[in-house]
Amino acid sequence: MKYADIVHRCFRCGYCKFTGDYTDFNCPAYRKFRFETYSPGGRMWLIRGWLNGEIKNSERFQEILFSCATCANCVEHCVFTFSEDLVNIFIAAREELVAEGLIPPQVRDYLKAIHVNGNPYKLPAAERGKWAAETPVEPYRDQEYLFYVGCVGSYDERAVKMARAVGTLLMKAGLSIGILGEKETCDGNEVRAMGESGLFEQLAEQNIRTFHDMGVKKIITLDPHAYNAFKNDYPPLGGEFEVFHYTQILAPVIGGRRILLKECPLTVTYHDPCYLGRHNKEYEAPRSILKAIPGLELTEMERNSENAFCCGGGGGNFFTDILGKGEESPARLRVREALDTGAGVIAVACPQCAKMLEDAVKSEGLEDRLKVMDIAEIVTGCLS
Ligand code: SF4
Ligand code: SF4
Questions:
Q1: How does residue 134 score in pLDDT terms, banded at 50, 70 and 90?
Q2: Which CATH class is domain 116-250?
Q3: pLDDT of 49
Q4: Residue 236 Cα, ligand 1 centroid: separation in angstroms?
Q5: Helix crossing, 40-51 with 59-66: angle to 10°?
Q6: From the CB of 41, is ligand 1 less than 6 Å away?
Q7: Which residues belong to CATH 3.40.50.10700 in the chain?
Q8: I need a labelling partner for 170 at 20 to 30 A (CA). Which of 3, 77, 100, 274 fits?
Q9: Is 326 exposed, middle or buried (0-12, 13-18, 19+ CB in 10 A)?
Q10: Considering the entire predicted model, what is its pTM?
Q11: Distances in Å between the alpha carbon of 160 and those of 1, 85, 167, 360?
């Protein structure tokens, strides 16, 4: 296994499962199950025991390895030099399980759906661009930017609304964007996180080929997961593009008053998506958009920015649900934390967070008190 030579360096001191000030547990898997093996350090020792032949690849072992949301809280908070490889170590262990063919059935189903259909919803590629039908967004020809929407934004009912809001707002801002529609396929970020590196490379190569054939140089993504893959994992495979998350494009547009906004007396708290925040250190662009809206009050949750608590959807859990639901699910805990700020809106910048948190608001029975809105949806509601 890759990284086998550094797994033994974990002291199991446990700092990695906390926030930076150690006041709360911040590893979503540990917070949900409360067993040490679900924590980052416990996971390291479990992998070590497995590599040493002391632990077998059981269903329980698989479940623990795949419950990691790859949220990178441990990367941020482990005090040792190998910390930046923690998520990579967990992914490397998953790669071994995938190679053995011994993985949870939900993971197998997800990977098979991507392999066969190019999306986890088992829907035809021809339906990918359907969301854009009632918007001004057009197919990509030679526009300045490719607007890459991804599987969730293309097919999920909640996320489609977000794709429409972002696409329409980018057009309103005068940006030259186009979509690939049926030529788009899965970006592979979760495939990679689930340890199917071969399938990830196939997807990446297919996307890179399409982008090159179409003459794409600049990409705006809806989803921080796609942003992460294009920015960090495509370049070594020959895919060098200028990549932006849509909030990074909208921030100067709104800040420069290229779109006129009216007074919007909302109290909003912002939920950092792990793949925009901790994985790519972008904390400011989404906040600067919210701060530029006249009358809007931005109030922070106790855990924010590099200490933000994951909604539980990362690392493929959005699709496999291995972290599971219930009152102590990460998304429901996060919604209660948002409610404590007094905000009436949870602002999100990721279609997976949007769905996870909106479902959690319903499960908590808080629909009358809290709305989950994507940043583009908030801006659209504040256009003058
Ligand atoms: S991963 Fe780092 S912080 Fe966590 S238990 Fe191991 S050494 Fe300690
Ligand atoms: S990446 Fe997140 S979920 Fe996975 S072990 Fe680290 S803190 Fe826990």
A1: confident
A2: alpha beta
A3: 97
A4: 29
A5: 140
A6: yes
A7: 257-381
A8: 274
A9: exposed
A10: 0.97
A11: 39, 34, 10, 18
Ligand nearest to the CA of 22: 1
Q: Locate 153 and state its tokens.
A: 């934004």
Report the residue among 6, 7, 10 best suited for mutation to probe ligand 1: largest number of ligand atoms under 8 A from its CB: 10
Total Cβ atoms within 10 A of residue 295: 11
Sequence letter at residue 326: G
Express each pLDDT in 82-105 by its tens digit. 999 999 999 999 999 999 999 999
12 alpha carbon – ligand 1 mean position (Å): 5
Is 82 touching ligand 1 by the criterion CB < 6 Å? no
Mean pLDDT value across residues 137-164: 97
355: confidence class by pLDDT, cuts 50, 70, 90: very high
Read off φ and ψ for residue 324, nearest 5 degrees: 80, 175
Residues in the chain: 384
| Residue-level pLDDT at 325 | 87
Q: Nearest C-alpha to atom 2 of ligand 1 is from which residue?
A: 78
Handedness of CA 80, 82, 85, 89 (dihedral sign): negative
For ligand 2, what atom is nearest to the CA of residue 67? 3
Query: What is the CATH code for 257-381?
Result: 3.40.50.10700
